[in-house]
Amino acid sequence: MRYRLGVDVGGTFTDVLLLEETTGSTFRAKTASTPADQSVGVLNGIAKVCDQAGIEPSEIGQVLHGTTVATNAILQGRGARVGLVTTDGFRQVLQIARSFVPGGLAGWIIWPKPEPLAALENTVEVVGRLAADGSEITPLDEAQAREQLRSLAGAGIEALTISLINAYASDVHEKQVAAWAEDELPGIPISISSQVLPEMREYERTLTTVANSYVQPEVSRYVRNLDRSLQEKGITAPLSILRSDGGLVQSAKAAESPVSLLLSGPAGGVTGAVWFAEQAGYSDFLTFDMGGTSTDVALVLNGEPRIGRETKVGDLAVRATSVDVRTVGAGGGSIAHVPELTKALRVGPQSAGADPGPAAYGNGGTDPTVTDANVVLGYLPTALAGGEVALDADASRTAVATIADAIGLGSAEEAASGIVDIVNENMFGALRLVSVQQGYDPRDFALVSFGGAGPLHANALGRLTGAWPVIVPPSPGVLCAYGDATTCVRDESARTMIRAFSATDDAEIHTALTELAASAAERLSAEGVPSEQQTAKYQVDLRYQGQGFEIPVDLDAAALESGDLLSTLGTAFDAEHQRLFSFLLKNEREVINLRVTVSGPRPDVAFQALDTGSEDPSAALVSTNDVWMDGAYAKAGIYDRAKLLAGNVVTGPAVITEMDSTTLVLSGHSATVHPSACLLITPLANTSIQEN
Q1: pLDDT tens by residue, 553-578
Q2: Can you give the residue range of the structural domain that contains 672?
């Protein structure tokens, strides 16, 4: 037997899933996250899941991990003290930025500009200059450069970024400065922009490389500690980390380029959703991942998650390939409050987190949260995470009652219903960002819901979006860990090559893409992936001449070899531009960046079909409970998901419970059990559902 271990660390819970590849059998565990040292929660989960499976940790063949260490370092401002080396005259590159202020009219009046990750006092300039074609205009001044590096040594920096003008065209100067830095700053990790992001635009390239330096020491420490702890537990299996684009990378390489891990956690959920949606027969869907602290949403088209070139974490937006995930501060732990000024109910983005957590957890929390509202409404069982977290219904009612008093509602149930409605609208807004705002009608998609809290709200989000069916995979609370365990290793190469269509030809584009593919393939081969098992995906960033932005266009292997590259790219670019902006320009098209991603094979995991039963789900009925729905109490059946069979149909109102999550089926809807063990929630045939 061969076991793969998927681990996902969230803000509230750490999810662990053990997968036996031959049979597809799974074992899962959910433990409280340990923010002070995430590896503690990871090891607790591993011990628990191995005990369930009756195996020794040494039998695990691979450890695959989605982590929020890099994300948290950014959000909590506890990254490294970064020194920055720029070309003479470019010292304020991070301060000038793009002169962009978020928000509405006059937002600049109240917007607190975030401090750059590399302070100006820790930024130095070196004499030396390259042209845009990579040729040398001014040679480097070694004495001056070493003097500047020594000044950074005295400033106590913990990481160094080297980002020189036009380094995307030639890395010669950056590598030379890096060699001098190794002499002057021994032991300091160095990131150079020509390796982290070899693309044009000085600000984005510098910011992305500085972000890499900022989180590198923290990620390196975490990876080393986890590696050592796994070894101590007898787990000698290699540790791989999930990248933001949904691929895996060896832990040592992840520590060198941690900026590619900023959306590691959310990417695992999307990857897991793709696997289960395929089993249920759906290739176009929205994903909805609601945890304890936040909700992540994404769009999948033709079985492929949409990949973006910008990764946003808090106020930071870096140029790194990632699944196009949008995040809102809406989770089970989101706190409901009534500001004194407006007297209007608000939910989030503040969260009770894992400690103290919602009032229902009994850990000292008193603020009313979304979880407390669901307890008051009768939607949650008496315990979560397989009995690990007992719920105190009285504490939830007391907390939610403060909201009812603050806004003059007659009951805690009405206040709880308002809390749930508002958080649903917040998440609906996020789903519109990845669908309507991108030119897609959500009614053309299914909705895959997961995360510990997602299935509780999924049916309501289906009503708001009109996306049917709502698909709830098995073990939705640990789906991110499932995604970690069922994805593949991946590597990427990129290059800036600014060419008008009239100034290039198919042969030049073909040669450049082929070289990039060979470079990424070579690195993947070094990780033990045979060349015959590798597949390449090609992407070209295009724009109309004069535009200030590019649009990525995907290219498959057949198109690459067709001999008609520019025509194919131009047609695809026009179609995408029309979809996004509803117009085309007559300006000549222009190639800006080339990018190739090479992936290894997806693991051959066996599919376990659920046993078949009739439509009658009564064998799984555990009890009935009063739930508050549509402004009144109603009787709801409480079902044990583990006892449901393929073909069973659960009609709402109903609550379906399992170890790691709870699914709510609203009145006027039913959940059909698919052979893949997914729940497919749809409106009843005679029910009129409003679609927004």
Answers
A1: 998 888 888 778 999 999 999 999 99
A2: 618-683
